[in-house]
Amino acid sequence: MKSKLTQIHQIRFLLLSVFFIHINCASSQTTEKTKNKKPNIIYILADDLGIGDVSIYNENSKIQTPNLDKMGQEGMLFSDAHTSSSVCTPTRYGILTGRYNWRTPLKEFVTWGNSPSLIRKNRLTVAQLLKNNGYKTANIGKWHLGLNWTMKNNNPEFEHFSDKTNRLNFKNIDYSKPLKFGPLNMGFDYSYMISASLNMPPFVYLENDKATMIPKGISSQTKKQSPFATWIKGDIADDFKHDQVLPNIVNKSISFIKENANKKAPFFMYIPLPSPHNPVLPIAPWKGKSEINSPYADFVMMIDDLMGTIFKTLKEQGIDENTLVVFASDNGFATTNDLKTLRKEKHSPSYIYSGYKGSYLEGGHRVPFLVKWPKKIKPNSVSDATICTTDFIATCADIINYNFKDNEAEDSFSMMPLLTNDGNYLRKATIHHDKYGVFAIRKGDWKLVVSPNSGVMASGKTKKHKDIFSEEILYNLKTDIKEKKNIASKYPEKVKELKELLIKQIREGRSTSGKIQKNDAITGEWPQANFAF
């Protein structure tokens, strides 16, 4: 009997041992799988948000942004981050492609709602890169990079990127048909967007490259009706309400996160917000919430709260630890958004910097740039490295161990060494570009503006600055952060060095190492770059 009981105990022990070994192996495999899983990646891009509008950047801010402040405290704050242009479209091109915008035929200004796609069919985007490497990808928000619409009765497609004459010509667009070329052709699995800025028609939602409703009406709002909430007269669909666009985009983003949070494939989301760009449309409970009687301040607070709902969703879904979130702005503050009231209330949307949206001065392109990735980035990290928004795609490539071909991401440098404090960040210089196409180059503390009076206005006339007579403007940002003193005549060798570097990077079609590339062919002249050819 005793022998039989001993055998039973031995069998039980053996079974339990096998069970625990199985559990430990499964646990080990799960841990290893979790450990090696690629991060989810979310890039949130505000529209016309000044660096001084985010309170973690501005100790004297009259607008409080607690959710964005918390993001900065839990991750890394970049104090010297720059967009590749000081206006909308060009910056967006650089983020998605890793290439300077002025290498395309768009040499100044922005695209319109009916402009053709600025991103060409053979151009690698960050969405395509990540999709090719197992990511589920989504574009949710304001596009503003041009789209190839399907036209009625075989009418010719729009050809010009910044054609002010035909910007309101929508009569031949066939809204019942999908786009001929849009985000779904650029690597996005899902897309929900508006075609351009919230003040630019056509006012339709496009889901998976097709209008959710065919526009049957015409809408416009003038300064007389609302001074800071205006939009251009144009086609509008019945399901399009301007003040609901931002909440809709955030709700769609949250839905996508919930649907994909616990799936096997990681996801990438590009969320370009339409705000706080004009029209400034805060709704309840944010309307009137700020203490400075400014709809713009209310709108920024609304954005901050909605960003908080996205961050909360990531945590609730249990994926925040291994989700890389970037928050940035596409350029500086737009003076049309009630600058007079903000000044009166002693709020500086450009913080300590000179200039605003459209300018080659720091306030035009130095932007808030926050990155959170708890698994990799230490809390309360601060980087004073000079980075550019074109660097995003190279950072993603670094994460997935992808090596670019010579004709990909020609102006993108990985930020991973900065985020992880491991290795060398390779960017040595950054090229700035203003609304009128004027060039500037930054290297270290030095910044050179070349041919400041060569810019081209929308009318086609040359943009002349009445108070600027020099062909080169040199600033030392360490001693003159407000850019008030042109010291070009004092440091001719520094002017020569920076100008030669700028010319080299323009001519060679790239600023990264690799085989020389061609800039896109253009029709007409390129007066802003005459110094380079």
Description:
- The chain is of the alpha/beta class.
- 26% of the residues lie in helices and 15% in strands.
- The chain has eleven helices and 18 strands.
- The chain has helices at 2-36, 66-74, 88-97, 126-131, 245-260, 295-316, 339-344, 362-365, 392-400, 416-420, 492-507; strands at residues 40-46, 76-78, 81-82, 136-142, 190-194, 206-207, 210-211, 217-221, 231-236, 267-272, 323-329, 369-372, 381-383, 387-388, 430-433, 439-443, 446-450, 472-476.
- The strands form four sheets. Strands 7-6-5-4-10-1-11-12-2-13 form a ten-stranded mixed beta sheet. The protein has a four-stranded antiparallel beta sheet with strand order 15-16-17-18, covered by helices on one side.
- Strand 6 (206-207) and strand 7 (210-211) form a beta hairpin.
- Helix 5 runs parallel beside helix 6 (295-316).
- It is globular, with a radius of gyration of 25 Å.
- It starts with a helix and ends in a 26-residue tail after the last helix.
- 49% of the residues are buried.
Summarize the structure.
The protein is of the alpha/beta class and 533 residues long. Helix content is 26%, strand content 15%.
How much of the sequence lies in strands comes to 15-25%
What is the helix/strand order? HEHEEHHEEEEEEHEHEHHEEEHHEEEEH
Strand order of the largest sheet: 7-6-5-4-10-1-11-12-2-13
Q: CA-to-CA gap between the ends?
A: 101 Å
Q: In angstroms, what is the radius of gyration?
A: 25 Å
User: Average pLDDT across residues?
Assistant: 92
**What's the total count of β strands?**
18
